[in-house]
Amino acid sequence: MHDPRMVREQADALRDGMRRRGKLDALGPLIDRAEALDRDRRTAIQAVEERKAARNAASQQVARLKKAGESADDVVASTRVLGEEIARLEQELGAAQNELDAILLELPNLPLPEVPEGDESHNTVVRSWGEPRAAESVKPHWEVGESLRLIDLAAGAKISGSGFIVYRGMGARLQRALMNFMLDLHTGEHGYDERWVPLFVNRDAMVGTGQLPKFEEDMYALRDDALFAIPTAEVPLTNVMHDELIDGAQLPIALTAWSACFRREAGAAGKDTRGLLRVHQFDKVELVRFTAPEDSAAQLELLTGHAERVLQLLGLPYRVLLLAAGDTGFSSAKTYDLEVFAPGVGKWLEVSSCSNFGEFQARRANIRYRPAKGEKPRFVHTLNGSALAFPRVVAAILEHYQQPDGTVLVPDVLRPLLGTDVLR
């Protein structure tokens, strides 16, 4: 959420940010309306203050008249009229404030200056690691996964519908191995504090991280209980600090969690529907960091490096993309995507997005810190990244490590957890 003062003091910066995202035509009128509402709000505040001052003066006059034994009926009547006007103006003020707040919730974050303008065609590869395997004679992961009885797509569809997966045997064990490997890495080597979080959260939590109100159609909801299934552990991990005032000496704070994730993928019909590429329920290990504003740029590089380390240890070739403004998520000011190469489908697959949100989420969730004793509290900067999402990592493992005889080599770091060096 943006500082409401931006509407009054930096409306042009808001418009430029929307332009860089390619959304000025859609969101420019909202900014215009916000400016008008802010003017109306300030006018109403001034009018209320003037009438309250007049009412106070009239009340004092009534007291003087009554003390002098004179009639105060006319003044009492004028006081009543002033009270009615105040009530009407305060109602108008409340309506204007509510509409302004709703507009601010609809405006995405401003991309940082170093973020390229344009749509996804302007994403920039900033570095790569490893050598992608040639695609010749490599089967897609869904074929090798079913032939090795690691995944059962038909069972998932029978039980829950398309986009839901049953993992079986060593495929199920691979999920547990990935969870333990990633969590042990991030807690043991990278200094994250592990949490085990709820899979359902309330509306305030979803608003706090920016999923609502913008993306409600993508959410699975328990309407009777006013709860939403989480699309990522980012939501509960970030909202652990909802309404908190943090001692600045504790920053940065680094949290990690495994969770199941649930996404309707309402806007992605027909895209990447085969195998594990786009599913409605999946597992993921998430990283969240809270930091002072002056440190958030360096913290993004650090967090991204932690996600990259997972891919390096798994031996999966990947590249890091700096997303252009038009491809950057709603709440993010800057995002790096990590993509692994899957030779069986001949595609780079996104397995992580690492983002700096600035104070955007902290304003929505009211997460502040006190820099030092006696200093005024400030909003923290929040960051998060997947490290990593499991389905496409599994797809890349099954394709990158596939052998001519149909078996799949197990990455070295997973062998102790799986108890084997080959999936057969």
Radius of gyration: 27 Å
CATH superfamily of the largest domain: Bira Bifunctional Protein, Domain 2
Q: Percent helix among the residues?
A: 40-55%
- For the record, the CATH architecture of the largest domain stands as 2-Layer Sandwich
| Molecular shape | elongated
Topology-level CATH name of the largest domain: BirA Bifunctional Protein, domain 2
Distance between the termini: 50 Å
Spans of at least 5 consecutive residues with low confidence: none
Secondary structure: number of strands? 18
Q: What is the class of the largest domain in the CATH system?
A: Alpha Beta
* Strand arrangement in the largest pleated sheet: 1-11-12-13-16-10-9-4
- Mean pLDDT across all residues, rounded? 95
Could you tell me the strand content as a percent range?
15-25%
What is the overall number of helices? Answer: 13
Please state the structural category.
Answer: alpha+beta
Tell me about the biggest sheet?
A: 8 strands, mixed
Number of domains: 2
